[in-house]
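Risk register update: the risk of archive-format incompatibility is retired. Evidence:
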Amino acid sequence: MKLHGAPFSPFVQRVLFAARAKGVELEVAPVSGLGMQDPAFMEISPTRRIPVLEAEDGWTLCESSAIIAYLEETQPGPSLLPADARDAGRARVIAGLVDTEVAAGLRHFVTQKLFGMFANPGALEYGAQQLILGLDAIERVGLDSEGWAVGDRPSVADAALIPFLTLAELVARATDALPPVAGRPRLDAYWARVREFPLGKQSYDEMHSGFEAIMKRKEAAA
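Archived output:
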């Protein structure tokens, strides 16, 4: 199997983390040609977004959450959900909050402040509210005080949290507009320790390397 996308993308990295947690290494295939506007890519990604998983027989699946669910159902290795039903529910809630609030809020800062694609102060303010709402809710839902987000092994919660906390860190370094991510004790403690775990560090380092490459290309084109 291979994954169409780029390691800097938090959505791509989310799938890579989940696959690695199950002991599966996915080949990453960069989107070529006309990029995400390439008709060939549009055939396998109706939303024109990465990542897209491609199986050995050519079958494809888009959207990171659907890909992770597919890997969970088809690949051997540790489950991406805690065995305890209540812990599994908490892991799903955290992953959902990342999707609906944290990722959605950060998107406004990436498009407007990082890449300058357009300017919409109202949308940026709304994005800040989404980000704060999501981070505050995750803090209240609760992260374990030791180890991974929920339970003693990586779960869908970590697959969602690590890439988007990394993205928030990168955006904050490059712009002066992002609301503070730090200041939530449980989330701060989680973020401090999880980057030291080999699996977490790999995602963190890959996103940083990809970000640096993108910024260099941006500077060269300016």
